[in-house]
Structure formats: C-alpha cells, structure tokens
Amino acid sequence: MIKESEKFLNEIEKERLYLTNLKKDFKDLESFLEIYELLKSNLDKLQEMKESMDESGYTAPFRSLNRYGSRVSEDVDFEELGEISRHNQIFRNKASAKKNSFDRVKYAISAHRIALGNLEEYAKIRCKDCKKSYRVSSFLDNGKVCKCGSSNFEFKINHSGVHRLEIIPYLPLSGNYMVLMSGLSSWGRESFKRVLNVLKQQRRGVVKTVTPIVKYKENGRTITKRVPLDSEFADSYEDELRRRFGKGVRIERLEFHRTKPTIINDKHTCTNLALAYV
Fold first, then answer.
1. Which of 19, 59, 109, 205 has its CA 20 to 30 A from that of 242?
2. Strand order in the sheet with 133-134
3. Which pLDDT score is estimated for 18?
4. How far apart are CA 278 and CA 191, in angstroms?
5. Where do the H-state alpha helices sit in the chain?
6. How many helices (H) and strands (E) does the chain have?
7. Rounded distance, CA 116 to CA 127, Å?
8. Alpha-carbon span 30 to 139, nearest angstrom
C-alpha cells in the first residue's frame, strides 16, 4: 500500500500544474473542465487510499511497537537481545514509513480540496438555451446536460465568488509539503510562520452562556447558587435574575462562556494555504 500511494503521489508531482495564470489558461469550458476533472479524479483516488490506510491501521502504526516492543525477558542472552533489537528497528522503520505515507496522502487530499474549492467558486456554467446557471459540481452530476435537455453551455466567471486561482499551482497537490517547506528561504520561512499564525489565530467568540453566581434570601436563609443562562440573556441577565429570585438578589460573580473559533481549524489546510500564499 505504501508503494502504491507513493507511486500515485509521484505521478501527481510529475503532472503538476505548470499554469502561471489560470485565468488566462481557462479560455473555454473544455479547458476549465480538463483541470477540474483531473483534480477531482485525483481526489477520489486519494480518498480511497486514505480509507484503505485507515482500515489497515495506518492511523497509529507505532501502537503495536509501544505495546509489545519494549519488553524483553531477563532470560534473553546477548545474541538474542541484538536480534530482537534489530527486528524492532525494522518494525519501527516500517511504522515510520506508514506514518509518512499516510501523512502525505492527507496533505494531498487537503490541497486538492482547496484547489477544487477555488475552481468551484470561480466558474459559472450557463446553458445557452434556457440561460440556467450551474456550479461545476452540479453540472458534472447532471451529466453535462441541462434540465431543459440542452448540452449547449458556455463558461462564465463567477464575479461574486471567493476565489484565488493563483495559489493553485503552489499547493502541495502531491503531499510534498515537507519538500516545499525545506526549500523556503529564511524570508520564506518567516513569512510561512506569519501566515500560519494568522490562520490559526483565535478570534474572540460569541457568548454561548452566562453563568452568574448569586446570593438571595429564601425562607430566612441566604442561598448561594450558580445560575446558567442561555446566550439570549447575555445583555439582560440582571432582569432575568430579578424575575427569578426577586429584587434582593445579589450577583457575587459573573462568568461569560464564549466560543473560541479559529479561522481554519485543520492543520493540513493551514499548512497548505500558508505554503501556497508564501
């Protein structure tokens, strides 16, 4: 499976997109679909490989070594100990190869998804007869035939879409992100880190819940209580507390629980985008 994946990824590397300006290369619908369908075909094969690797234990190749490889009986003599050590090293090398191959496939999948997402946003395919417009994926799912029965289409740019086609040739489509990173200059590495930090930066999230800790009187006793409130009471929690516990309620402490979103919460996507923009 390692040889198969490496062979396919190397083929992708050899057939890399030498397109300096995709907007000029896409002169018509056929030239656009040629690139899109190539990337889609590659993505489908990569996803099949990933599923096979998942089933074969590539997600945790060192688990068996950690469980069985470190224990050696005290009765083992020196020669056997050397043999065991040699076998352990062989298994570790195989596990490392599995991890690296699986890692490369995952980065390649992410890069293809980014490329296809940009192409999807860039193109609008319109039927010349009924003027109905399609996204690329819908157009292909319909067998390149309009609902009106026509197969006469034209390629249009979706000016309202969010796309950056110029980054596609610089994506690690073959999963060779380590090679690209090692080839960066000192300035490139610094830029890469900055872009990566921006993509991973956490923004201040919206309020999910408000939890005031309150004191109030009930039957002559002072009661302290935590009162979780939904986000709808973020600006009116005092009114809600008075409604529940009376005007004499006192807030001892107030906790706001916020979401903590990142711009992109996936290391493969972050790394690929940072490399493409650098």
1. 205
2. 133-134, 123-127, 153-157
3. 57
4. 6
5. 2-14, 22-25, 29-55, 63-64, 78-122, 136-141, 177-182, 186-200, 237-245, 267-277
6. 10, 7
7. 22
8. 13
User: What residue ranges do the domains of the chain occupy?
Assistant: 2-175, 207-258
Please state, in angstroms and rounded to a whole number, the distance separating the CA atoms of residues 110 and 266: 9
Indicate the average pLDDT of the chain: 83
Contacts for 57 with CB less than 8 Å, ≥ 6 apart: 63
Please give the span between the terminal C-alpha atoms of the chain, in angstroms, as a whole number: 33
As a residue count, the chain comes to: 278
Q: What is the CA radius of gyration of the chain?
A: 28
Instruction: Tell whether domain 207-258 is in CATH 1.10.8.
Output: no
pLDDT per position as a tens digit, 81-137: 666 667 677 777 777 788 888 889 999 999 999 999 999 999 889 999 998 989 898
> Do residues 119 and 35 touch, judged by C-beta distance below 8 A?
yes
Query: How many CA atoms does the CB half-sphere of 144 hold within 13 Å?
Result: 9
pLDDT-derived band at 40 (thresholds 50, 70, 90) equals very high
CA distances from 64 to 11, 56, 67, 69, 73 (A): 32, 13, 5, 7, 18
